[in-house]
Amino acid sequence: MDWLLDLNSSVNSIVWGPPMMIALIGTGIIFTFATRGVQFRRFGFAARQVLGRHGEAAGEGTVRPFQALATSLSATVGVGNIAGVSIAIASGGPGAVFWMFFSGLVGMATKFAEIAIALEYREKDTAGVMRGGAMYVLKKRFNLAWLGVLFAAFCAMASFGIGNMTQANTIATAMRATYGIPDWVTGLVLAALTGLVVLGGIRRIAEVASVLVPVMCVLYVAAALFVLLSNWSALPGVFELIVSSAFTGQAALGGFAGATVRSAMQSGIARGLFSNEAGLGSAPMVHATAVTDHPVRQATYGIFGVFVDTLLVCTLTAATVLSTGVWSSGMTGVEMTSQAFSLGLPGDWGGQFITLALAPFGFSTTIGWAFYGETGFAFLFGERTKLPYRWAWVAAVYVGAVGGLEVIWKISDTLNALMAVPNLIAVLGSIGLLRQRMREFFATHG
């Protein structure tokens, strides 16, 4: 088993290394120019679609457009927004926040493009559920079914680790450390709740996500804003520190070991891309289920999704960590974020809040990724595998909570990155089609 972990570690350092970062950021820059800055010019349109018109869907599909967005966000707004941001700052310094923000801005264009292309080639399964994603694009547009099979396989295998077991284990660990709840108890509760949602398929997942995600995001944003208001005098210095460190690095300070410009860029860009998953091809699978009259309309929801995940939630986490000064304490991950909220919220609410936030954040990721993995399995083995897959998903939640099969967690991170390769081929090869659909849609919709 050690040889497998060593091999995976070597591959992981490549697939999540500078070449992949350059490919993903480069794709975002390409689509920013190819769409003439759609994320900036059409952000107002996207916000109006999400906040004002999600109940007026027309056309074919399975779930409402807002439900598709909420399900997509459920899979990305998770533990990484709480712990991952602090890890990025601990390794890359305050400058990492600048590059995280930058990756979010260009990632908006990538997410817009991959969703639009996925909807163009979606198809209805035997149960009437719309299915789409890079695998369908590769098969139907490029006649590269074998590459679609690879994407589906990477997705199906990665889902059990990154979207299931690691989430359950993080929640169980937090509950044991804070409240003394045994892992097996947390595992049983999580498995039961997951089963109630996942066994109902995408319609039930979307219904739950459309309620859970807005509530948890609003509460988290409100708590973060309270912390920032408590430290408002430090904010001007925080913004100056972020920008200056992004281009000059950061010297050692307190328990912080110092960081170079390169480490700031690599840590920030990796965190942004890992958080919003732009270019990895996951979100288009659920957006493809949306009831909509045009692929571009639903693609604008993707712009707003990256805004919420990276430019709002991740940035607020970073600002709380920096404004309270805990970034130089030597702590990292959940510990650092928890300490920041403890200093900003009254009493012991800070540490309690982060522990309690981990549960819905991790749970939402679990139900969102359930549909991604199911879509991969259905593409590979047919629709009859859906129910066995869902039961296996529920069982894996318990296994993850009690700390089993850790090797799967590690390998899943590598498989998640490998999803980007076939996905980028599908999306970059469809630039002409994307521009055509954009001209067609915005000619009649401003």
Can you describe this structure?
The protein is mainly α and 446 residues long. The protein has a two-stranded antiparallel sheet. Strand 1 and strand 2 form a beta hairpin. The longest helix is centred in the middle third of the chain and has 35 residues.
Low-confidence stretches: none
Give the helix level as a range of percent. over 70%
Strand % is under 5%
CATH topology: Hydantoin permease
How many strand segments?
2
- SS-based class: mainly alpha
In the sheet with the most strands, the strands line up as 1-2
What would CATH call the class? Mainly Alpha
Distance between the termini: 57 Å
Mean pLDDT: 91
Proper CATH architecture: Orthogonal Bundle
Shape: globular
Characterize the largest beta sheet: strand count, sense, and whether it forms a barrel.
2 strands, antiparallel
The number of helical elements comes to: 21
Please give the domain count: 1
Kindly provide the radius of gyration, computed on alpha-carbon positions and rounded to a whole number of angstroms. Answer: 21 Å
Give the topology string: H per helix, E per strand: HHHHHHHEEHHHHHHHHHHHHHH
Question: Helix and strand layout, with pairings?
Answer:
Layout lengths: L1 H14 L2 H17 L3 H4 L1 H10 L12 H12 L2 H14 L2 H26 L2 E2 L5 E2 L2 H7 L4 H35 L3 H16 L2 H30 L4 H14 L12 H16 L6 H5 L7 H29 L9 H12 L4 H33 L4 H16 L4 H13 L1 H9 L2 H12 L4
Antiparallel strand pairs: 1-2
